[in-house]
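Figure 2 data, in text form.
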Amino acid sequence: MTRPEASVLTEPDATGEPQPRAARVNPELLPAIVVLACAVLLIIATKVLNPGSSFAYQLSAVLVTSIFLVVASFGQGLTILLGGIDLSIGVVVGLAAMMISILTDGQDGALPWAVPATLAFCTGIGLINGLGIVLGRVPPFIMTLASGITFYGVGLGFTSGLAQEPVAPALQALMSDHWLGVPIPVYLIAGFAILAALFQNGTAEGRKLYAIGSSPGAARVLGLPIGGLTILAYAISGLCGGICGLLLAGYSSAATLDIGDPLLLPTIAAVVIGGARVTGGRGIYLGTLAGALFLSALETIITVLSLSQGLRNIIEGAIIVGALLLQSEQWGALRR
């Protein structure tokens, strides 16, 4: 099991006695620190390319737009931690956005029951994914891809692919208002990041997920509830997709069935470039958070440069490949 913890090494002095050596940066934190520093550099570069706006404004804009990736990547990260993947998360985001728009019909009065209903539906999709993987022994890649296609078809049948608007004003206000001069989404990111980090890296369930991802065989010998925790991870991924869909609908003031499609690849990229191992068992949420912020800053600078969507996909794919190469070489050497 891999968990971040501080270490102090010793080395002999001239007399041969071991002496304390300066503590090294924890290898699990190193990718997160590097990626976070790169995100800051990208924000600075955006300021240089767009001198008409202040650095504070650019930082605020990146943070607001990163909330969708910050939330969705947490769920994706849990499935990758187990050595799996969730390819249905983009569809779940789109279904959540459409569902909350249809159920509220532009009225705040329906939110108290529409929000729980939407989140329960999205969590249910995650449960179906987890049950198919555990009970049906379907590979995660196939199971989540198939469920995504199936539920996209269900959504298409109910909505005919038409955009739904308007979204409840309270959701729009949540994504556009400020408190004490700071956008509300920034507070939401801080609160969500704390809860996500505490769950993944500070709870018994989180430690068990690391154990299962590191060695399923050993976890089985230890009697860990592999099936239950796998279902839990995919259910949380569905829940995160639902939350992301609600926020995205409020931000866009409208909803379409494919509104979450552009988030699928970035959720995987955020987890991988943050230092997580695609085969499972390694990675901390701080790395995922740093990856989400980096990709959001990259998206901002790509928008400023008016690059095409095709080129954006090429850049994101290259980043994932580069992160995998760094994992196997640089990060792996540092961990040894």
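Caption note: The radius of gyration is 21 Å.
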